[in-house]
Amino acid sequence: MSNHLLALLKSWYPLRDFCDWVLGTVYKTEGPCYRKAGAMMLFSADGQQLGMLSGGCLESDIHQQARRVMQSGRAVTLTYDGSDEDDLSFQLGIGCGGTVHILLQPVHRENGYLELDRVYTALQEFRSGYYYQCVPEKNGAARSRFMDNDAVSIESFQVKAQLVQEDESHWLCTGITPPPHLLIVGGGIDARPLAAIGHQLGWRISVWDPRPANARREYFPDADELLSVPAEHLPEFVRSCKVNAAVLMSHNIALDARALLVLHGESLRYLALLGPRKRREQVIAEAGINPDKHSPVIAGPAGLQIGADLPETIALSILAECQAALNQGSGRSMSGVLASDTPPRSMQTVFS
Questions:
Q1: Rounded to an integer, what distance in angstroms lies between the CA atom of residue 246 and that of residue 126?
Q2: Backbone phi, then psi, for 35, in 5-degree steps?
Q3: Which residues contact 60 (CB under 8 A, 6 or more apart)?
Q4: Which of 27, 30, 121, 124 has a CB 3.0–4.6 Å from the CB of 172, allowing a cystine?
């Protein structure tokens, strides 16, 4: 299951009144930690754990603390110091070496579910907002609120969580945004792993292909939308459903060009074409657009250079590049282990 907040709330919502629940949130970190401030997780009295607050080393102890919160009905804070040999986190073998501060709050009908139901509704409707959680000095009443902010675009939205002071209390303010929405143009065999892996990431996946033999439900069981409408209807879909990225991979120059023509003026943050550069130029020429006036740059060949040569690995390279584009990442090795002067390898010749 994806660890995106929408996926957690989707599992929690139908069970919210069947047992006691506790919301766990990382509200501050010091040094290297697996999850950062704003990460959330839900614990149930029946033993369910939805999400992650660490790499898996702290969850069992946090769940025990959550059971105490269920009994007391009070919010509490926990601290795990991976650099202290006497701290539980060090004894558990946590390898990050940082310190993580966690807020636990009971979630039930009487406290309005901490407004998590409102967060769930907003995310389902592609809306963003800010989620505020009061961080008590030691323990206190659970207080949270959600401020719907659907008028703010994802491009200008501040997602990074931060502690703010309000009414002599400290609040964790976390930007809540829907998961990325990827539109795949072309419902061929090689589009299936792209849709499947994207779904596993928790992204919303839509597939468009007007050809009757393609983009069928049995081929894309996890896709959120399967579309066969005329290409001219795609811009309205992109706007209403907040599509962030599109990959054109129909293996038909005319079809890709039709899609490119109607999509190139939309507010996409990633637009890519499968195949070599020569094919990219052919599709652009067929569409009759000026790529120099387009933002973002039309990526072609799509994907990062990871030595991909199978549908699954090509899908991985495309999603990695898309992830970097959506989050302003560099796409480079964090350790620097990959030499920058390594000769580029063609990823897409098998599909050109």
A1: 17
A2: -110, 150
A3: none
A4: 27
- Using a cut of 0.85, tell me whether the model's pTM lies above it: yes
Distance CA 151, CA 326 (A): 19
Q: Which domains does the chain carry?
A: 5-176 (no CATH), 181-351 (3.40.50.720)
Separation of alpha carbons 136 and 184, rounded Å? 45
Residue with tokens 């139908």: 14
Beta carbons within 8 Å of 86's beta carbon, 6+ residues apart:
none
Both tokens of 280, joined, read 């990219």
Residue 269's closest CA among 295, 238, 240? 295
Cα–Cα distance, 312 to 316 (Å, whole number): 6
Task: Retrieve residue 137's tokens.
Answer: 């000095």
